[in-house]
Write the structure tokens for this entry.
Amino acid sequence: MDTSKLGKLSKEGRDFRIYSTPLKSFERALIELLHSGIERISTISGVDTGKQIDVLYHFVNGNESITLKIVLPRKDAKIKTIKKSFPGAVLYERELSEMLGVTVIGNESPKNLFLDKESPKCPLRKSL
Amino acid sequence: MLPELIIYPGVIFIVFLGLLYSGIFRKICARMQNRVGPPILQAFYDAIKLFGKENLSHEGAGHGFFIWPIVAFASALVAALLIPVAGTVALNAGDLLIIIYFLILSSAALYMAGFSSENPYAIIGASRGFMQMIAYEAPFILAILFPVFFYQNMSLSYFNQLQLSNGLLALQFPIAAFAFLVAVLGKVELAPFHIPAAHQELVGGYYIEFSGFRLAMVELTHAVKTIALLAIGVALFFGGSASILGFIAKTLALLFLLAVFRATLARFRIEQAIWFYWTLAGVLIINLTLQHGGFL
Amino acid sequence: MSTRIPVGPQHPALIEPEHLDVKVDGETITDVDVHLGYIHRGIEGLMQKKNYQQNVYIAERICGICSGVHTSTYSEGVESLLGLEVPKRAKYIRTIILELERLHSHYLWLGLVAYEIGLDTAFQISWRDREIVLDLLEKITGNRINYAMNTIGGVRRGITKEMQKETLQGIDALWEKTKYYKEVFLKDSIVRARTKNVGVLKKRDAERYSVAGPIVRASSVDFDVRTTNYAAYADVKWKPIVRHGCDINSRLDVRIEEVFEALNIIRQCIENMPEGPLKTIVPPVVPKGETIMRTEAPRGELFYYIRSNGTAMPERVKIRPPTYANLLALKPMLIGSELADLPVIVASIDPCFSCAERVGVIKEGTNKKEIFDGRRLRMMKDAP
């Protein structure tokens, strides 16, 4: 696997590595992962840091967890769906848009997965 | 005639024994499963409670929803009255054929009641029930035909007397006796054939919408049908009965056997059950032609 | 003719609150839609409002059955943020608790499968034997569930010599009983008829949908997170159980073999238990950073992502419990199968919805909490 295509290594632990991937090379990184036989996605986490929204895609490669970190603006956060190449991500993408208000292009659903219709929108966003 | 019809061995005796046996049955199963189980009189409490309940029905319930449970109970009761208990018959009016007919009517009426209740679970349960009827009636009737063909007689009292003097017919027709017991499992919807009412899939199946009086009718139908089938078993295959004590001992032994099946077997899927019963029917037909071909 | 059958949230086959909208044609399932959200508690949001120590208690209460694995995953995550090395004795004790928990979860599951196929007696008996495990857990930790055993930096209680002896006795008893279950669940002809080639999840689907745990191992994918050697798994001899049938029968096989494997692991841990302290000294401040911790819960891969911003409270704790990952497997397994098999197929993924639904719903910025399903847990008190 050509790890340089995944982005800059930002953190390495006992059994995980986190790469900071620029948004424009995200698709290239996904293709690189698929080419090296990685199909398993653990989950997608979103973090609202107050300045930006970090979206982390956690993949599994054997005993190691490989994470791609994408930074999105807080206003009008948008990202393309990866459900075509990683079908396991369908629910996680819906959760991401439900909890953090990130629009996942190609995986919009009129129905909520977890929250009630009357719940406040995007509960994990920080209100500044 | 009248006391025989109403008290012993008539309606009151049959209903009392049916409810008592359903309590005993639950207790045996519970003990086999390491449970304490309900009190033996639980079925009586339930029946009395249900008769006292409000008469609820839902929108979309047809007339059949009210009529069929009563038909089911009545026909099960008539079938039970036609069967000799300890040598005496409450309603000396018919033979095996009419008993078979009333038992079928009783099951069919229950499933018709399910269809009339317009609940998706009930409809699926009822259609499963009819499918299962098609399956188990064949071995049931074939099993009964064995002694009928052999002795050229249709009267249960005759077989009762015959066995008292000649010994168990089950020894003479072991395959038929076994097939009879297996068909009884299907008729009273016990494991592995509790498919129409499958609790985990259909939440009670055809009787999901019943409550109060109508649910009591369903429970009583089951209790009376169980007694009727056990009594047929005793009179036809398992030695007959001369005294009330002998009757109770023999039916209880059969009930225990059913409880063992109930506690040790998982539920078949409907197509597996049909396959099973029809294979059994095939074996019976071959057996009947081979062994008793001369009587056909 | 197509009938719509609502299954759940109140249905005897699903003790867990979910709603399956099932379309059937005769008895064959043609479509199924899963609805969640009945017991959403907002735990991820809550965790951002509590300090690291308090979050151990919250993690404990995510699930009643896998409470041990949640706390040990969370604690190990925070320990890796702190750069702490946990004493070896604590690691062994954690492993024992994790495996005891796997035992009682698997016994529970065996009982449920038996119940769903109408075999009530096996259900009663396996739950009776599960009591042996629960009694052991109660003796060791003081609680039958929610063991409160793990803490950041180690464990809170030791296992005395007397407890070790009793645990070994319990394990021997369970070994015999599990042999009997193996006979019942893998040899009984009706059980085989109801589980063989039922709920098939092909290897390709299992990989693509990122399914985890015993389900994926029954579909011949060798994926067991215990190989990442967290807790004391590097020190004991064990192997992942993989079966190739892809059906419920294989899942039964995998789980029963895992019970034997768990009994072995516990025995090894007790026999080789090192002496030493139970807990290290924990620095008061968690430095800025992020970490990922994955463990193998009884139902599959449990995933924690913890990010610290240097304050007393974590910036984000993302939890991905196994049922959430396994839900996607329901559709390929259910469509085309018989309605009669629906309960056992749903049960075969061992669904646990307290586990799947705990993502945050607490309104940020105000001190007032809004919990939307009306279920206020006692632990949800204001953050310090």
About this structure: The mean pLDDT of chain B is 85.
